[in-house]
Amino acid sequence: MLIIGIAGGTGCGKTTVVNKIINELPEGEVGVISQDSYYKDTSHLNYDERIKINFDHPRSIDFELLVEHLKALKINTPVNQPVYSFVKHNRTGDTVLTHPRKVMIVEGILIFTNPELREMFDIKLFVHADTDERLIRRLKRDISERGRDLDEVLSRYQMTLKPMHDQFIEPMKEYADMIIPNNKHNTVAIDIVRSIITQKL
Ligand SMILES: Nc1ncnc2c1ncn2[C@@H]1O[C@H](COP(=O)(O)OP(=O)(O)O)[C@@H](O)[C@H]1O
Ligand SMILES: O=c1ccn([C@@H]2O[C@H](COP(=O)(O)O)[C@@H](O)[C@H]2O)c(=O)[nH]1
């Protein structure tokens, strides 16, 4: 199994890049695991308590479960990936049965911060988009898809997102094998990654 890690700040385009990579590959050959599915369960908290969580800090992620699942997939065992709701800021209680594939892509803002997980990646990619571009994309996406308003996005950005990005995410570029510039749609980089995957299939 080839395991590819794709990191980068919120709104840089990780999900978009992954979808473009897999869209033109044979169905069922490449699997995706999103770090977003592994936000810790917060059912013991009420909504007002949950919105105060710093979701941009590594401690908000259940890395133990993520590593356990990736190890299981490596030995050909399917896993039940949790389903996460950004609207509720919590796991939904549902899971998605995820089968091992020849190539597994793991994507998420903080995936290179955990040494054990980082060591499991055969290829590490970092998607870069400028800070202002990412904030604009996040604003539009979170308002249209994640039930947020302007105030929520901007105050989270100032209070936690930007400081955590500078402390934990940006320094992870050091570990990347390749940085994908994504201020504009980058079809060349996507073609390169797709051809690396195709060689493995
Ligand atoms: N290169 C790009 N140019 C313009 N918009 C983009 C680009 N890449 C992604 N987007 C848009 O930005 C938003 C965030 O992208 P997404 O892939 O969800 O980022 P991430 O997974 O890194 O948070 C989405 O609405 C997406 O359509
Ligand atoms: O309950 C939650 C969990 C996370 N977030 C924010 O999501 C982004 C990471 O997701 P991307 O898809 O990579 O943008 C992170 O910056 C958290 O602040 C949230 O708002 N609520």
UniProtKB/TrEMBL annotation:
<keyword id="KW-0418">Kinase</keyword>
<dbReference type="Pfam" id="PF00485">
    <property type="entry name" value="PRK"/>
</dbReference>
<keyword id="KW-0067">ATP-binding</keyword>
<keyword id="KW-0808">Transferase</keyword>
<comment type="similarity">
    <text>Belongs to the uridine kinase family.</text>
</comment>
<keyword id="KW-0963">Cytoplasm</keyword>
<dbReference type="InterPro" id="IPR000764">
    <property type="entry name" value="Uridine_kinase-like"/>
</dbReference>
<dbReference type="InterPro" id="IPR027417">
    <property type="entry name" value="P-loop_NTPase"/>
</dbReference>
<dbReference type="GO" id="GO:0004849">
    <property type="term" value="F:uridine kinase activity"/>
</dbReference>
<dbReference type="InterPro" id="IPR006083">
    <property type="entry name" value="PRK/URK"/>
</dbReference>
<keyword id="KW-0547">Nucleotide-binding</keyword>
<protein>
    <recommendedName>
        <fullName>Uridine kinase</fullName>
        <ecNumber>2.7.1.48</ecNumber>
    </recommendedName>
</protein>
<comment type="pathway">
    <text>Pyrimidine metabolism; UMP biosynthesis via salvage pathway; UMP from uridine: step 1/1.</text>
</comment>
<comment type="pathway">
    <text>Pyrimidine metabolism; CTP biosynthesis via salvage pathway; CTP from cytidine: step 1/3.</text>
</comment>
<feature type="domain" description="Phosphoribulokinase/uridine kinase">
    <location>
        <begin position="3"/>
        <end position="188"/>
    </location>
</feature>
